[in-house]
Amino acid sequence: MAIYDARKLANETIFEVAKLCAMAALKAPQITGRTEIKGEIVTGEDLLPIMEYMGIQGEVGAVAQQDFLTLKKAYEAGTPPVLLFLGAELGRSELGWNCYACGFATCAEFNRYSKKMRDAATLVSTGPTCLWKGLDFGIAADWAAATAWALNVDNRLQQGVANAARRLGHLQGCSRGVALSIGPCGDLVWFSRPALKGVASEEELMDYLWSNLPHHWMGRPYGDAESPIFKYADDWQLRPKRMELVEPSPEILEKKRSVEERLAALIQRERAKRGLKGTVPTKGLLEAEEGG
Amino acid sequence: MGAEHVIDWPPYGSSDRVRRRGVLAAARLMMNAAITAPCPGGTPQIEGHIVYGQEEQERIARKMEELAQANPKNRLWKNIFKYEAVMARESDVILFLGNYRAAETPMESLCGYCGGAPDCTFLFSRKSTRYGLVDLTEPTESQKGLVAGPLCVSAIINGLAFSVGSALWMANRLLVDARPMMSMGVAGQKLGYCPRSPLVVGIPVAALPKNPYVDIPMDYHLVSFEKMVDSLRKRYYAVKAVRWPDYRFSYPRKAKDSDRHKGEGEDGDL
To answer: Which chain B residues have a beta carbon less than 8 Å from that of A100?
Structure first.
């Protein structure tokens, strides 16, 4: 007879789930039949550099911030998620389909342009992308996520986490990567995230809504020089205000510059540990995060 | 209360139509899976078509055969289109999935996957735009191609590919055969399925004793089951037309000295 801690065993099993997700990614049907799917499974202490990256980037980006907080909460609880990174080289086409989907009339033109971009890339190559091979890659990633779903573990496909990992040295030889964060075990981890409780004030969240969906709070669209006035408070009609286009403030620009410098230093440190050489640029590290 | 007989022969017979209705139900669930699949930012961007019927599938197959000539020097391209046109005819249902944002309202993630630079200039500079809005009503060079690119890669991979993946995964769970096909998607898009999408993937679906999408002989468009049956139809009646006496009062005698019937009695009994 033996009694086991079910929660502990369940969370330990997530590593096995990640392996099954990798199997599913490799089994997924392909359109071209020529896309080699590569992958890495990362957990435990090896998550720390990725978390550090997301934490720094999260100072100026909401998506990175929420991914960082979710990773951190799980890690500190002793139940870190298991990250399955999937990648593929999508910047070479041996198809000869000449379909124009990539913006080039022929695959040969695409390959020439792609080589030029790869040779010029200072950190990781990103594009261009053969879209049909890209579809193969996306189908594989979806099958991995669907497998985790079928095995009842909360999971999320994330681009930002994968971008961070690639810059830190993961998925070498791939022009595209995606991260599948699997676990920890619980009803909701990566959606309606408990880790975000208490993070933002009501005012911060209203600022977020106003800046992203301003039309919903705008007053009548025509009329005098004060139009359209903005419904920023209950007495908006008594103290009318309107929106204006402004340049990014020096404070925000300085904050972004500081973030880029610290990211560059982190990337340099981690890549050196892996024996990867090359100078890390400090500019251009902050791309807009893609939603998970 | 009732009873439904199901058998896959003859194609489009009443019992076969019962079988096809089951596949249509599966295709609708596959479409649900495509809609609920992960997508960037939860942004709606997927449209689909569920197509079935001999006339519709024949039209798709013929368009595929026409497109086989689009890359005249590429033999594999021709084979893909011609062989998969056979599959379009043999399928029970064809799903088309497209992404309607990939050209007109891209994700603007500044990811660089379209052109390599960490911004969206590669895409926007190759489209007709007005104040940052893409105007698809203005012609561009790429509209003459098979696919009017360039397209937002984030929309295609994180949007369309995940949807296609989920549709295929659902097919896997429902034990119906399905595979994603470029040829069928390009033909379907040209015929007007998923009308808002510049790039469409075709997913033929079938529930037949043999998966129609694997184990494909060479020159399949010439040696498909349909062609084999048709050649039998052509030959059989010609063979039947010659040499047969009136069956009502005669039966062919055995040849003398034939060693085929050793051990048999006069009437052929052992």
So the answer is: 142, 144-149
Instruction: Provide, as residue numbers in chain A, all residues whose Cβ is less than 8 Å from the Cβ of B165.
Output: 28, 138-143, 146
Residues of A in contact with B75 (CB under 8 A): none
Residue pointed to by tokens 């799980």: A74
For residue A287, the model assigns a pLDDT of 61
Lowest mean pLDDT among A29-43, A244-258, B80-94: A244-258
DSSP secondary structure, chain A, as one string: -----HHHHHHHTHHHHHHHHHHHHHHS--SSS-PPPEEEEE-GGGGHHHHHHHHHHTTS-HHHHHHHHHHHHHHHTT---EEEEEEE--S---------TTSSSSHHHHHHHHHHHHHH-SS-------HHHHHHHHHHHHHHHHHHHHTT--EEEEHHHHHHHHHHT-STT-SEEEEEEE--SSS-SSSS-GGGTTTS-HHHHHHHHHHHSGGGGB--SSSSTTPSBB--STTTTTS--B----PPPHHHHHHHHHHHHHHHHHHHHHHHHTT--SPPPSSS--PPPPP-
Are A97 and B182 an interchain contact pair (Cβ–Cβ within 8 Å)?
yes
* ipTM beyond cut 0.90: no
pTM (2 d.p.) = 0.90
Neighbours of A107 (CB within 10 A): 21
Tell me, what's the pLDDT at B269? 54
Which of A100, A178, A193, A287 to mutate against chain B (most B CBs within 10 Å)? A100
Total Cβ atoms within 10 A of residue A235: 9
Summarize the confidence of residues B222-251 as an average pLDDT: 93
Give the bridge partners for A83, in sequence order.
Answer: A42, A181
| A97-B118-A145-B34 Cα dihedral, nearest 10 degrees | -60
**CA–CA dist A166, A124 (Å, integer):** 7
Q: Does A117 touch chain B (CB under 8 A)?
A: yes
Between CA A137 and CA B118 the distance in angstroms is: 21
| Residue range B58-108, pLDDT digits in tens | 999 999 999 999 999 999 999 999 999 999 999 999 999 999 999 999 999
Q: How confident is the model at residue A244 (pLDDT cuts 50, 70, 90)?
A: confident
